Amino acid sequence: MPGLNSKNYTRLFNVYRLLANVDILYDENCKSFSIKHGQLLNSTDVFSNQHTDTEIFAFPGLINSHDHLEFNLFPLLARHTYGDYKEWASDIHQYYKKEIKQILNLPLPLRVGWGILKNILNGITTIVHHGGYHRLINQFNYPVFLHYQYIHSISYEKNWKLKLNYPWFQKDVMVHIGEGTSPEMTAEIDNLIKWNLFKRNLIGIHAIQILPKHAKHFKAIIWCPDSNIYLYGKGPVIDKVKHLTTIVFGTDSNLSASSNMWQQVRVARGLGMLSDEELFYALTRNPKQVFKLNHRQTSGNWVIAKRTHTDLPLSFYSLNPEDILLVIVNYKVVLADAAYIACIDQGLFQPIRVGRAVKWLPLQWSQLVSELEQLNVSLPLNVSSLRHIPPR
C-alpha cells in the first residue's frame, strides 16, 4: 500500500470519491464498495449520502489461467483446422517460417513484457504463465503465477513419465493434454492418468477429448475455447464434466486466439456450457481455489469498467479493452482511463492509445510500446503510443 504522504492521500481520496457506491458484479456480501487509503470498504459505512454511479461498475480482478507470455506478438497462425497440436505445430513451422522467425528475433523481454501488458489491458490482474523465463517474468513486478510443475505435453516433454513421478515433487502438475480431436488425444489422457502413479494433482490444459470418466482424475481443466475452436473446430464438452472437476478459463496466446479476451469470453458464453455466473467464477473464484491464491494475493485486485446496461452481467459480457477504466492491483492503480487520471501520479504514468481510448499506465509499459513501435512491430488490440495515433 502506498505511503500516505499528502500527494498519495489526495490520489487515494480521488479514487475513493470517484468510486464511492459502485455496484459489484456477483458480490454476495455487499452491493457496492469504495476505496479509502488503499483499503476496500463497504460503501454503506461511509459517504452514505452519495448516489450509486450508474455509469460504471466493479468486479474482482480477473485471473487468466493459461497464457504463454512470450508468444503474444504473433499473428494467428493456422491454414485450416487440425487433428491435434502435433499436426498444427508441424504445419506452421513448414508454412510460416518467415512470420515465426520475425517474432522470435525480437528481444525476449519485449515479447514477455507485451504478453503481460496484453493481460493488463484486458483487466486481468493475475496471469498463469505456462512455460519458462520465470526470472525474467519476475522482473516485471506483476502478479504472474509460476508455482507449479511444468510439463509441456506427453509428446513434446522428454522423460515425462519420470518427471510426473518424482516422489519429492509436491507441486501441482500443469500439462497440455488431449489437445485435438484425433483418437490419439483420447489415448493421451488415458496414458497420463495411467502413469500418474503417485496420484499427483493434475491440471489439464485444453483436454478437448476429456470424458466424464477422466474428469475425476483432474484437479482442474483449463478451458481455452477460442483457441480450441480456431485450431481444432471444437473444444471439450465442459457441461458434461463441470460437476466432476473444476473449470477455469484461459486465453492461450495470440498464436491461436484473439488478443481481446472479452471476445474469447463471448465465444465461451455463446457455447452455453456454463451459466453466466459459472463463467464469471471460472475467471475469478475457481482459479483462486485451484492455484491456492490467498486473500493477501487477491483482495486488493479490482477492475472498474464502463457500464453499458442496467443488467450487470450483460455489461460484463459486453466489455472490450477500451471499456476498462481502472485496474487496481494490490490496492495500487496500474491502469487508468483518461477520465480517471486524478487517481494516479502523472509523473509516474504515461498514456497510450487502445483503439479510440486513452489509457495511462506506469512508465515501463508506455516505454515498451514505444520500443516495439521503433522495431515496426504491429501491435495487437490496436495499441499505439500517442505519437502514433491511428486514424479515426
Automatic annotation (TrEMBL):
<dbReference type="InterPro" id="IPR032466">
    <property type="entry name" value="Metal_Hydrolase"/>
</dbReference>
<protein>
    <recommendedName>
        <fullName>Amidohydrolase family protein</fullName>
    </recommendedName>
</protein>
<dbReference type="InterPro" id="IPR050287">
    <property type="entry name" value="MTA/SAH_deaminase"/>
</dbReference>
<dbReference type="GO" id="GO:0016787">
    <property type="term" value="F:hydrolase activity"/>
</dbReference>
<keyword id="KW-0378">Hydrolase</keyword>
